[in-house]
Specification:
Largest sheet of chain A: 7 strands, mixed
Number of strands of chain A: 7
Oligomer: heterodimer
Distance between the termini of chain B: 5 Å
Structural class of chain B: alpha/beta
Helix content of chain A: 25-40%
Number of helices of chain B: 15
Strand content of chain B: 15-25%
Radius of gyration of chain A: 17 Å
Largest sheet of chain B: 8 strands, parallel, barrel
Radius of gyration of chain B: 20 Å
Order of helices and strands of chain A: EEHEHEHEHHHHEHEHH
Structural class of chain A: alpha/beta
Distance between the termini of chain A: 36 Å
C-alpha cells in the first residue's frame, strides 16, 4: 500500500486532479471553484508534499501504475484533469486506460517531444536561472510568482521537496517521454486541452500540437495566464472545465 | 609525509567585466572566451610542472571538472595517460574522474587499468562526487548522485579485480551485459583507492572500506569531523584503527624565500575561491538533490525569517562563505600554508597538531594568475626546504 496525501472538495461525479510542478495549496481558490462542478480528488504524487516516496519508486512508470491502480479501484469512470507535469501523467494514463475515463483535460501539459533535436520544447526549469524561469512561468509574475521571504519554513520545505521529486522523475530526458507522442492517438475519450496564452515553459503552439495528436481533442487558450492558469485564472479554468463536463 | 602536486589548470584570462556579468563561471560561460592557443600554453606549463615534480620527489594529482574557467582538465584519464608515460618515478593520483557524470563506469575502469599498466603500477585512484554545475554539463540527474557514486565505485572495483572472463552487472543505476576489461591493472588486486569528502557520512563509508579520505580546502574543524566519523565507523565494524596513511589534506601551499614573497605569491591561489567558485544558484543551492528539504528554507530567503530558528543549509552557504576570503583568513583557517620554508613547515605542523597525523598533503600550488615560473620556484623550495622536515 502506498499512502497519499489527498485533498477533496465538492460532490458529484469523481474528478481526479493531478498536480503539476508543485502541489496544490489547500488555500487555492481553484480547488473550491472546481469543487462546484465535481467531486475533486487531488493527491500529492509520491515524493511531493506530504506523500512519502517508497524507496524503489523513482520513475514515471511507477507514478503511472500507481494512478492506474487508483483509477481501477474507483467505482465509476472518472474525469481526469492534469496540470503541467500532472498533464503528462494524465496523458500516459489516458493512453493506457481510456476505458476508465469519461473525460480528459490537459492543462499546459508536459510530456511529449515535438520540435527537432536542436529545439527545446520544454523549458529546462532545473538549469535555467530562477529569474528566467519566473519570467517565463507567469502572465503577471509580479502578482503571482512565489515570494520566498513570505513563506513559512514548512512551505519552503515542501517547495524544495517537490522540486527534488520532480527532478528525480523528470530530469532525463527533460520532462518528457520520447515514446508517448506516438501513442496519443490511442486516447478515445473526449479531451479538452487548455493552455495559458502567456505560457513560456511550454508554448501554446506546443499545446496546439499536443491537442492535434489526440483524436477529437479541442484546444482552448486561457487569456492572461502563464504556465499556471489554476493560480492566475482559477475561475476561468474551473468554469471551462465545468462547461466541458456538461457537454 | 607524502606530497602531491595539484594544478587544476584554470583559465583565468577572461575579461573581468565578462566574469562580473556572468552569473556563473562554470557550466554556462561561452567557450568563445577560451583561446585555444592560450589553453595550449597552460596545458604545456602544467605538464612541465608535473615533470618537475617527477624530478624533485613530489607525487602528482590529476583531476577533472567540466565546462568552466576553474579547470581545463575535462577528462582525468586523458591526462593520466600523458603522466603515466612522461613521468617515471612519482605516484600518480586521479582525484578524480567524475564517475557519477559518466554514463559507463566500465570505461573508466578500463582507462584506469590502462594508465596503471603504462605507468607500471604508479596509479592511485581517487573518487569525487561531482558538483552541481557538473550535473548540467554531464547531463546526469542530481537527485540520487551519492547512490550512483557508490554503485559506480563498486562496478569499477569489480571490473578492475575480476579476472575470470565476462561478468554482468544489473544494478539500479548501471547495467552492463559483458564486463571484461583489458588490460587488467598492474597493481594487484587493484591500485590504492581514495575519495575526497568532508561529509561525515561518506567518510564513515570510506572508513569501512579502508579508502584514503582526503579533504580539499575544508579547514581543521571539518577535517576533524570527517576523520572522527572514519575512525568511529571502523571501530564500530570491529576493524583495526586506521594509520595516518589513510588520511590526506589538500590546501593552497606556496613557499617563498621570505614570508612576504610566500604570502604575496601564495595569495594568488585564492583566485580559486574568489573567482573560480562563482556558480549560478540553479547549479548550486536551488539544484535539487544538493540540500535536504528540511535544511532548505534559508536557501530561499533573502533574510532570515523571524523565529525560523537556526536551520543551517549544508550546501551553497559553505562555498559562498569562502568567496572574498583573504590570505590572513585563509591561513588562520588552514586553507592556505604560505611563507618562507620555516613558516610553511610550522603552519603544516600546527595544522597536523589540530587534526591529527595524516600522511598525504596535496599541494594546490598553482591557480589563477600565478605564473609558471612562480609555481616552479615554490615547488622547488617546498621539495628542498619543507618536505624533508615534515614528519614521516
Amino acid at each position: 500500500m502506498i499512502e497519499l496525501e489527498i485533498q477533496r472538495r465538492g460532490a458529484g461525479r469523481p474528478l481526479l486532479l493531478l498536480h503539476g510542478l508543485q502541489t496544490i495549496s489547500p488555500r487555492a481558490p481553484f480547488l473550491d471553484l472546481l469543487g462546484r462542478h465535481a467531486e475533486v480528488i487531488a493527491p500529492s504524487h509520491p515524493g511531493f508534499g506530504g506523500s512519502p516516496r517508497p524507496e524503489d519508486f523513482d520513475s514515471i512508470y511507477d507514478l503511472v501504475h500507481l494512478y492506474l491502480e487508483l483509477l481501477e479501484g474507483l467505482p465509476d469512470r472518472v474525469t481526469l484533469v492534469g496540470l503541467s507535469f500532472g498533464g503528462w501523467l494524465a496523458a500516459e494514463l489516458a493512453v493506457t486506460c481510456s476505458h476508465r475515463l469519461d473525460r480528459l483535460v490537459l492543462v499546459d501539459a508536459l510530456g511529449i517531444k515535438i520540435g527537432d533535436r536542436e529545439s527545446r520544447d520544454i523549458l529546462d526549469i532545473f538549469n535555467t536561472s530562477p529569474a528566467e524561469v519566473r519570467r517565463r512561468s507567469w502572465h503577471d509574475a509580479n502578482a503571482w510568482a512565489l515570494d520566498f521571504d513570505a513563506m513559512s519554513d514548512d512551505e519552503l520545505v515542501r517547495y524544495h521537496r517537490n522540486r527534488e521529486a520532480l527532478c528525480l522523475y523528470g530530469w532525463h530526458p527533460c520532462l518528457y517521454n520520447p515514446q508517448l507522442r506516438r501513442w496519443l492517438p490511442r486516447i478515445t475519450v473526449p479531451t479538452l486541452v487548455l493552455w495559458g496564452a502567456s505560457d513560456g515553459v511550454v508554448s501554446p503552439a506546443y499545446g496546439r500540437h499536443y491537442a492535434e495528436l489526440i483524436p477529437g481533442a479541442r484546444f482552448e487558450l486561457i487569456e492572461r495566464a502563464g504556465h499556471h492558469p489554476e493560480i492566475e485564472q482559477p475561475a476561468t479554468l474551473a468554469d471551462r472545465i465545468g462547461a466541458f463536463l456538461k457537454e | 609525509m607524502q606530497a602531491w602536486y595539484l594544478n587544476e589548470n584554470p583559465y583565468p584570462f577572461v575579461p573581468p567585466d565578462v566574469l562580473e556579468r556572468a552569473d556563473s563561471v562554470r557550466a554556462s560561460l561561452p567557450n568563445r572566451y577560451c583561446d585555444p592557443r592560450v589553453a595550449a600554453d597552460l596545458f604545456q606549463e602544467a605538464l612541465d610542472e608535473y615533470l618537475l615534480c617527477d624530478d624533485i620527489g613530489i607525487n602528482v594529482v590529476s583531476n577533472e571538472h567540466h565546462s568552466g574557467i576553474n579547470c581545463l582538465f575535462g577528462a582525468s584519464p586523458l591526462i593520466l595517460g600523458i603522466l603515466a608515460r612522461q613521468t617515471s618515478r612519482v605516484r600518480i593520483l586521479s582525484l578524480g574522474t567524475l564517475v557519477t557524470v559518466r554514463q559507463d563506469p566500465v570505461r573508466v575502469a578500463e582507462e584506469y587499468a590502462t594508465a596503471d599498466v603504462i605507468s607500471r603500477g604508479r596509479l592511485e585512484i581517487g573518487f569525487v562526487k561531482s558538483g552541481g554545475t557538473e550535473m548540467a554539463s554531464g547531463n546526469m540527474n542530481p537527485v540520487g548522485n551519492v547512490e550512483r557514486f557508490w554503485e559506480a565505485i563498486d562496478l569499477i572495483l569489480k571490473a578492475l579485480t575480476h579476472q575470470e572472463g565476462p561478468f554482468s552487472w544489473e544494478g539500479k543505476h548501471y547495467t552492463h551485459r559483458h564486463v571484461n576489461i583489458w588490460p587488467r591493472p598492474w597493481q594487484q588486486p587493484h591500485p590504492p583507492l581514495w575519495a575526497a569528502t568532508g561529509d561525515p557520512e561518506t567518510s564513515a563509508e570510506l572508513g569501512r572500506r579502508g579508502m584514503v579520505n582526503v579533504l580539499v580546502f575544508r579547514g581543521a574543524e571539518e577535517t576533524v569531523r570527517a576523520w572522527t566519523a572514519y575512525r568511529k565507523a571502523r571501530a564500530e565494524a570491529g576493524m583495526p584503527a586506521p594509520g595516518p596513511d589513510r588520511f590526506g589534506y589538500a590546501a593552497f601551499v606556496y613557499t617563498g624565500d621570505t614570508d612576504e614573497e610566500g604570502v604575496r605569491v601564495g595569495s594568488k591561489l585564492l583566485w580559486f575561491l574568489n573567482t573560480g567558485l562563482k556558480s549560478a544558484p540553479q547549479y548550486t543551492k536551488f539544484l535539487p538533490g544538493q540540500t535536504r528539504p528540511e535544511l532548505a528554507p534559508p536557501l530561499y530567503r533573502t533574510s532570515p525569517a523571524p523565529g525560523s530558528g537556526n536551520v543551517r543549509a549544508a550546501v551553497g552557504r559553505a562555498a559562498a562563505a569562502l568567496v572574498g576570503i583573504d590570505a590572513e583568513q585563509a591561513m588562520a583557517r588552514g586553507l592556505l600554508f604560505a611563507g618562507n620554508p620555516d613558516t610553511v613547515c610550522r603552519q603544516i605542523r600546527e595544522f597536523q597538531a589540530k587534526v591529527g597525523p595524516f600522511e598525504h598533503l596535496v599541494l594546490a600550488s598553482r591557480s589563477g594568475f600565478m605564473t609558471h615560473a612562480e609555481a616552479v620556484k615554490g615547488l622547488k623550495l617546498f621539495a628542498k626546504e619543507v618536505l624533508p622536515r615534515l614528519p614521516e
